[in-house]
Write a structure and sequence with these properties.
The chain has helices at 45-59, 71-92, 140-147, 152-156, 194-197, 202-211, 218-228; strands at 2-9, 19-27, 30-39, 100-101, 103-108, 112-118, 122-127, 130-133, 177-182, 188-192, 235-242. The radius of gyration is 17 Å and the shape is globular. Strands 2, 3, 4, 5, 6 and 9 form a six-stranded antiparallel sheet that branches. A five-stranded antiparallel sheet has the order 1-11-10-7-8. The chain has one domain: PPM-type phosphatase domain (Phosphatase 2c, domain 1, 4-Layer Sandwich), CATH 3.60.40. The termini are close together. By secondary structure, it is an alpha+beta fold. Strand 2 and strand 3 form a beta hairpin. Helix 1 runs antiparallel to helix 2 (71-92).
């Protein structure tokens, strides 16, 4: 059985929420979740994230009630549709020129989650008292960490931590990264924008998800932690619980 919750908020500083999310539990063993974090200025960031979520989920509307035969192919097609929707609007509307969005998405099947990401919105898997970041950020500081130029701890406070190296809709074609995560009973999957992961550390996420209180209130608790720390960016998270 799958239970799921989501929340989004403009945070404590931004005037507009440029994040968007979608969540749908289709059956006891099938679900979809998407989080997008738009960029491109006050006129366009929210449009980019909204368009991406709409196009991505529209592409998945024909998912059969049983597990799809090729989940990764479905996700790949959905990401291409979302990229084209944002790219076309940016090319044809002067107010939207240069806009783009991150995306992290999960297609949940009976025993496995199929995930993709573009940008620095993340997916975390939480099980047996441990937390694991499934996705890999497409960001300047993540590239520096991989090269060994800085540590993961230094990356959290790096002045260029918000510079992403890949985004949906900024080019005609985009390369998404794909991941598979085996699911166990009692485990959780958390999707979030960097407005959460930049201000709440992984071990804090782990604690709140597992021990902070009722699961249905977890997204609200995480948002409140971000707000208590100034929430300089929009905050969005989606939580799946597998029973």
């Amino acid at each position: 059985m799958i239970r799921a919750w989501g929340i989004t908020d403009k945070g404590a500083v931004r005037q507009q929420n440029q994040d968007a999310y979608y969540l749908d539990v289709l059956s006891n063993h099938l679900a979809v979740g998407v989080v997008c974090d738009g960029m491109g200025g006050a006129k366009a960031g929210n449009i980019a994230s909204m368009l991406a979520v709409e196009a991505f989920t529209q592409s998945l509307r024909q998912i059969p009630p049983t597990a799809p035969e090729d989940p990764e192919a479905l996700l790949a097609q959905a990401s291409m549709s979302a990229n084209q929707a944002v790219y076309h609007r940016a090319r044809t509307n002067p107010d939207c020129r240069g806009m783009g969005t991150t995306i992290v998405a999960a297609l949940i099947t009976p025993e496995r989650a199929y995930l993709l990401n573009v940008g620095d919105s993340r997916a975390y898997y939480i099980n047996a008292g441990q937390i694991h970041q499934v996705t890999r950020d497409h960001s300047l500081v993540e590239d520096m960490v991989r090269r060994g130029d800085i540590t993961q701890a230094q990356a959290r406070n790096h002045p260029q931590k918000n510079l992403i190296t890949r985004a949906l809709g900024t080019e005609e074609h985009v390369q998404a990264d794909f991941f598979r995560q085996t699911l166990e009973s009692g485990s959780r999957l958390l999707l979030c924008s960097d407005g959460l992961s930049n201000v709440v550390e992984d071990q804090e996420l782990l604690y709140e998800v597992l021990y902070g209180g009722p699961s249905e209130e977890c997204c609200g608790r995480l948002l409140n932690i971000a707000l208590s720390r100034g929430a300089p960016d929009n905050v969005t998270c989606v939580l799946f619980q597998f029973e």
